[in-house]
Amino acid sequence: MKALFLLALLWSGAAFAISDPAEMLPNPAQEARAENVGRQLRCLVCQNESIEDSNADLARDLRHIVRARIAAGDADNQAIEWVVSRYGDFVRLRPPMNASTALLWASPVLAVLGGLGFALISRRRTPAVPEPLTEAERSRLADLSPP
Amino acid sequence: MNRRQTLLLAPFGVAVLAGAGFWTVLGRMKAGRFDPHDVPSQLIGRPIPQFTLPAQEPGQGFGSADLIALGRPVLVNFFASWCVPCVIEHPELMALARDGLPIWGIAYKDTVAAASGFIARHGNPFTRVARDAPGQVAIDWGVYGVPESYLLDAKGVVRWRMAGPLTPAVVSEQLQPMLRTLA
After folding, report:
1. Does residue B60 share a domain with residue B21?
2. B44 lies in some domain
């Protein structure tokens, strides 16, 4: 039973919001491309879902448009550009490299550099090796420690 | 204060700064000056997209050619009877219309009866009203929710856009100064 359940879990694919099979393109290759395009486009109503995942009206409208454009012969990036020209780069779930996103893309490098810098500074701050014990201290230590 | 004390106080300083920032953001959100979900319009500085839309009672429909032919600044307002923030901004639209700003309305994804009922209930600030039931023209404008307002200059170029309700703060701090530069 458990094995069956696990097997079912393995089989289950990603769940998409296409609630109406009539939304899908009859050509499976085109439908796959449209889904791939839709997964790269942000639903501006929910903002953290792609238009393939969202149930919002606007996401449904955009799914229709993407499918219509793909069916009409648009390349994937042409369909994406169509939406980006209306809603801007924010609609891409994968932000492009440009002047306004440079800081975003550089942030992992900056974080590593910052960490390295911090490590270097705290290393430099570690006090030098302490002075060796004097003869008097050593004999006192010997007295204190159990044999 | 020695170095150790400074270090101990640092987390509190960070917390106070974060709290102050958070408080400012919340205040600005409440006044309608800041929307964390705001997506900047791609139309700013660009001419409006071409379209023609059918009439919505009580106004006559219109298209991009009519907006350009008007030859003076005009506010294009996307609204819907099912939209709560549209009710909130309605008094601002009425006041702007009284002050002589032409406002052209587009009923977004609404039925004729519901949209005309909304205007009858709350008053009509619109010079002309069109309807975009499928919401396709709205997508060409980059609309992602209602209400949205676009200020066009005399040539039909978009100068300013507000996604969300026109609050008194938005009108006095953004729209009015923009109107003065266009006058």
Report:
1. no
2. no
Distance CA A75, CA A73 (A): 6
Which residues neighbour B160 within 8 Å (Cβ) at sequence distance 6 or greater?
B44, B150, B151, B174, B175, B178
Asked, for residue B78, whether it belongs to a domain, the answer is: yes
Q: How far off is chain B from A89, nearest CA to CA, in Å? A: 9
User: Could you tell me if A46 lies within 8 Å of chain B, comparing CB atoms?
Assistant: no
Low-confidence ranges of chain B (pLDDT < 70): 1
- The full set of domain ranges for chain A reads 15-96, 98-128
Tell me the nearest-neighbour CA distance from A132 into chain B, angstroms. Answer: 27
What is the number of domains present in chain B?
2
Of the candidates B42, B109, B140, the beta carbon closest to that of A88 is on: B42
Judge if ipTM > 0.90.
no
pLDDT by residue (tens digit) across A38-90? 999 999 988 889 999 998 999 999 999 999 999 999 999 999 999 999 999 99
Q: Which chain B residue's Cα is nearest to A47?
A: B37
Top CATH class of A15-96 equals mainly alpha
Q: With CB atoms and an 8 Å threshold, state whether A87 touches B142.
A: yes
